[in-house]
Specification:
The chain is α+β, with helices and mostly antiparallel strands and about 950 residues long. Among the domains are: about 280-465, Valyl/Leucyl/Isoleucyl-tRNA synthetase, editing domain (Isoleucyl-tRNA Synthetase, domain 2, Alpha-Beta Complex); about 620-730, no CATH class; about 770-890, Orthogonal Bundle (Isoleucyl-tRNA Synthetase, Domain 1); about 895-955, Roll (Ubiquitin-like (UB roll)), CATH 3.10.20. The chain has 31 helices and 38 strands. α1 (about 5-20) crosses α29, α24 (about 750-755) crosses α27 (about 825-840) and α25 (about 770-785) crosses α27. The chain binds one RNA strand of 87 nucleotides through α10, α13, β19, α17 and α20.
RNA sequence: GCCUCUGUGGCGGAAUUGGUAGACGCGCUGGACUCAAAAUCCAGUGAUAGCAAUAUCGUGGGGGUUCGAUUCCCCCCGGGGGUACCA
């Protein structure tokens, strides 16, 4: 019997489908375990080798848990709303629903090839109306709730209205909130529209104007990463900041709980730290600075009120509303120029810029403590959305303020003496106050507290908690997303669509261009927008994070048409036990999902407070990007294309050339140092990029033009050497490697194990198919324990296993169990290899040993193990076997080898009985030849013996 | 810029709590088999010196703690991810 993985894969793929091997029930006596992958966006490029990394890891873990006796939920679905499908529709006219359906079909075929144990009866697609009905339902619930600070949870907005009726908003402590106080009488006098406007300040999803990146030429709002140097990446059109009415989620309401509950979940400390920093809680003072000779004042938030005597100027965000009002005529031009400069930069660029820039408004404020007049500047380093959009600048104790003061020659007053704290940096809150009037001589923490009290006593500000976290902008002017379940009457008052009338189905159209008035393409579906009663629909759609914020709940009861999921199902599955996904989602998706979950918890929909109990991050697989160089200037009407070797040899200025990515299929010796295009490769390239069909290809071996090769010297083939660099695998870099090709050549089990063998799951690493042969020969070697590879003879015997073989087996069981539990799958593969190498050496074909090994390996190589399990005479799937347990007694050794080190450096080895105590060993150690050799003539200072570990002699 | 991860042979990586640096695999070198090649098998393989035994150096760079540091602390350099509308 030969190892034919093609036949084996087809056979078991069919078996699993026919026997519903991966169907999961919501009723079971077994303990539950929920393993979840971050579901993919079904892109047009199909699955590439980087995607399955996490999926294989979670699949192994799911199968392992099942073998360990758990009822395992391991579902898969698609995050199928998104920008790329819409962009593709704009380019090709193909409807996003059509391209998305095709892509999903392709993904599912690819998933099936890899042998994942998903229960496809629970599949979800976020763009399916049966799914987004419940996304809309949750949004309606948010609209009808507010966050009550006293109850510390979301409560129905009806209860808030009752409070208003009863006592106005005097005693209401709510997130967000209306900034003016009103009485019950006043409330009752309000018109319907006025009441609704007030309530909008409390709802958990609410509408407000937000500044967005508006690109008039494209007629759309752009993401920061779609903007390069102030221009749209697509087309290079100008982009401006523009205020638009948008829906927002009141994520800040949950800031405190999102922060505190991190302590209850099992995520890496680094990920929790990222979320903590994103939430960015800080305690400080809200302070008002009066303007000099004007009535207005500037609100700032500072965590260092103690340094106020060093506040020698103020800086406003360029977008701060006061800027226009306070700028003096004399400085108007300067400010306008600066605003123009800032407009051209994205927020990331503004923060990343090391250059110190700014402009003076000509206006002054008064420092409330020193009573001195301080100038008001604007600068890009102050962001409008963080804090109050204005700062009091203390150049002596803040790096950026200091750089700013130095550049613009503003005064610097030292207020903290750090001489007692050597090594303390500028932002450490330590030191003794100086030059600070009544604070002089105090330690910083004490001074901060003193200032809080003083500020509140003087009524110029308040102690306050500030969060960096902002409410999430939830509106998109796009077609391919969930429609909002909101309608407006003629006055513009918002009404949620009745939940019984959900879903609000996305209307069909073939016009995906944004409308001319900065509205989404949906606004052009006039029949859909205008309701018979004169009301109109919201035409923005939701962002992709909407559907992905709660999909893990839908899997628990995916086909329910009465509810988001049945409460009994949620009660059974609780939350996700293990979530596997990339760190690129560290804050956005993971924070929104936590927010959503907490809201559903508040309205009694889910019993748990957190969605994902344990989370591990998978790294990215990187690929090699291959490119050649195009000279920017044509010569004699021809493009010239150069190989990297020739270009480097000629010391050319790279600025004169453009890097052209080459489809890696055309490259010979892909990824190697001398990767290149030969004649066939160049011809394929010319066909692929017809604009370069008549280009002249220059290589160190000669010139190739229109099918004709003019060699330099005695060579027969062109070698257009390509430049190789490690980077992201992506369609735009033409370096996507399809797992199907790898599977066709080496088999799915080999592919699965090789992906794991590449390295630790959480680390990024380059994909290099060349070393896959090691795993391939391992699987054949494993097979050869059952069948002679030459004769096909069945080798398995029924004799008693030897002590040596049992030791090999139990070493493997111990190591692999521990490694799976700590998600170290690469070392599992190594341990399997060591185990098989040892059994080969022992010439072991023992039935008992092999039976256990098949179960052990089944999570990693399910196809082959099903086959061998059957060959061993079992009638049922190996998925329902019992994972072997490890027995210490097989591993006991009589003697232990100790490394003998002199001053920490290993110089020899010695064997001692396992039971021997360090005290007994010492004199024997001193008599060892190695020890005598290295300590000749030098006294031994100390002998360190760690039982079972090592010996170190100190001289 | 800020937050976070990461850096070990020619390559992917191992070393789980501070205790033998380089497991396992690829590649490379030599050998067996073969008319030959592929496949397979066996041996070697961090660098330097040496016939060898062995010695010295060696985990991005610099410093520190320790009997002992890839592992802990401080500073610096390189690479990845995020930075709120890619997913």
């Amino acid at each position: 019997m030969e190892y034919n993985f093609h036949e084996i894969e087809q056979k078991w793929k069919r078996y699993w489908a026919e026997h519903h091997t991966y169907r999961v029930s919501n009723q079971s006596d077994k303990p539950k375990f929920y393993v979840l992958d971050m579901f993919p966006y079904p892109s047009g490029a199909g699955l590439h080798v980087g995607h399955p990394l996490g999926y294989i890891a979670s699949d192994i873990f799911s199968r392992y848990k099942r073998l360990k006796g758990f009822n395992v939920l391991h579902p898969m679905g698609f995050d199928s709303f998104g920008l790329p499908a819409e962009q593709y529709a704009l380019d090709t006219g193909i409807h996003p629903a059509v391209s998305t359906a095709n892509n999903i079909k392709r993904y599912k075929e690819q998933f099936a090839n890899i042998g994942f144990c998903y229960d496809w009866e629970r599949e979800v697609q976020t763009s399916d109306p049966a799914y987004y009905r419940w996304t809309q339902w949750a949004v309606v619930q948010m609209f009808e709730h507010y966050y009550d600070r006293d109850a510390n949870k979301a409560l129905p907005i009806k209860q808030l209205e009752q409070k208003f009726e009863h006592s106005g908003n005097q005693n209401v402590h709510a997130a967000g909130g209306f900034d003016k106080k009103f009485t019950a009488e006043a409330w009752k006098q309000y018109s319907h529209a006025e009441k609704e406007a007030v309530l909008m300040h409390y709802r958990l999803i609410y509408r407000r104007p937000i500044s967005v990146n508006w690109c008039a030429a494209l007629g759309t709002v752009l993401a920061n990463d779609e903007i390069k140097d102030g221009l749209s990446e697509r087309g290079g059109h100008p982009v401006e900041k523009r205020s638009m009415l948008q829906w927002s989620l009141r994520t800040t309401a949950y800031g405190e709980r999102l922060l505190n509950d991190l302590d209850t979940i099992d995520w890496t400390e680094s990920l929790k730290t990222m979320q903590r920093n994103w939430i960015g809680k800080s305690e400080g003072a809200q302070l008002f600075f009066h303007l000099h000779r004007r009535k207005d004042n500037i609100e700032v938030f500072t965590t260092r009120p103690d340094t106020i005597f060093g506040a020698t100027f103020m800086v406003l965000a360029p977008e701060h509303p006061l800027v226009a009002q306070i700028t003096t005529n004399k400085h108007q031009d300067e400010i306008d120029d600066y605003l123009k400069y800032v407009q051209s930069k994205s927020e990331v660029e503004r923060m990343a810029d090391k250059k110190v820039t700014g402009a003076f408004t000509g206006a002054y404020a008064v420092n409330p403590f020193t009573k001195t007049k301080i100038p008001i500047w604007i600068s890009e380093y102050v962001l409008k959305d963080y804090g109050t959009g204005a700062i009091m600048a203390v150049p002596s104790d803040d790096d950026r303020d200091k750089a700013f003061a130095e550049k613009f020659h503003l005064p610097i007053i030292d207020v903290v003496d750090k001489s007692k704290y050597p090594g303390a940096s500028l932002h450490d809150k330590v030191g003794i106050m100086i030059n600070s009037d009544f604070l002089n001589g105090m330690e910083v923490p004490n001074a901060i507290q003193t200032m809080f009290t003083r500020i509140e006593a003087l009524k110029i500000g308040k102690r306050r908690i500030n969060y960096k976290l902002r409410d999430a902008n939830f509106s998109r002017q796009r077609y391919w997303g969930e429609p909002f379940p909101f309608i407006y009457d003629k006055e513009g008052i918002t009404y949620p669509v009745k939940t019984s009338e959900l879903p609000v189905v996305l209307p069909n159209t073939d016009d995906f261009k944004p409308s001319s008035d900065a509205k989404s393409p949906l606004s052009k579906c006039t029949d859909w927008v205008h309701l018979p009663n004169g009301y109109t629909r919201e035409t923005d759609t939701m962002p992709a994070v909407a559907g992905s914020s709660w999909y893990y709940l839908r899997y628990m009861d995916a086909n329910n048409d009465k509810s988001l999921a049945d409460k009994e199902a949620i009660k059974y599955w609780q939350n996700v036990d293990l979530y596997v996904g990339g760190t690129e989602h560290a804050v956005s998706h993971l924070l929104y999902a936590r927010f959503w979950h907490k809201f559903l918890h508040d309205i009694d929909f889910v019993p748990t407070t957190e969605p994902f109990q344990k989370l591990i991050n998978q790294g990215m697989l990187q690929g090699v990007i291959e490119s050649i160089y195009l000279k920017k200037e044509k010569t004699n009407g021809h493009h010239h294309i150069y190989g990297s070797k020739l270009l480097l040899a000629s010391n050319a200025n790279l600025n004169d050339y453009i890097k052209l990515y080459v489809l890696i299929d055309y490259v010979t010796d892909y990824g190697a140092a001398d990767s290149h295009l030969n004649i066939a490769g160049i011809d394929k390239f010319r066909k692929w990029r017809p604009e370069y069909n008549d280009a002249i290809f220059e290589t160190i071996y000669g010139t190739y033009h229109l099918g004709k090769f003019t060699p330099k010297g005695d060579v027969s083939d062109v070698k257009l050497v390509t430049h190789s660099e490690v980077g992201k695998i992506s369609k735009s870099r033409y370096n996507v490697i399809n797992p199907d090709d790898v599977i066709a050549e080496f088999g799915a089990d080999c592919f699965r194990m090789y992906e794991m063998f590449l390295g630790p799951i959480e680390q990024s690493k380059p994909w290099d198919v060349r070393s896959i042969s090691g795993v391939s020969s391992f699987l054949r070697k494993f097979w050869s324990l059952f069948y002679d590879l030459n004769t096909g003879k069945y080798l398995v015997n029924e004799v008693e296993p030897t002590k040596a073989a049992l030791k090999v087996l139990h070493t493997a069981i111990k190591g692999i169990t521990e490694d799976i539990e700590r998600f170290s799958f690469n070392t599992c593969v190594s341990k399997f290899m060591v185990c098989v190498n040892e059994l080969k050496k022992l010439n072991c074909h023992n039935r008992f040993i092999l039976n256990e090994l098949v179960i052990l390996l089944a999570p990693f190589a399910p196809f082959t193990m099903e086959e061998l399990w059957e060959k061993l005479g079992h009638q049922t799937t190996v998925c329902d076997a019992t994972f072997p347990t490890f027995d210490e007694s097989y591993l006991k050794e009589d003697v232990i080898m100790y490394p003998i080190s002199i001053n920490g450096k290993k110089r020899g080895e010695a064997h001692f009985p396992t039971t021997m105590q360090p005290k007994e060993m010492e004199s024997l150690v001193r008599d060892l030849e190695v020890v005598k050799k290295w300590t000749e003539g030098i006294p031994i200072k100390k002998v360190i013996i760690v039982a079972g570990r090592m010996v170190n002699i100190v001289v």
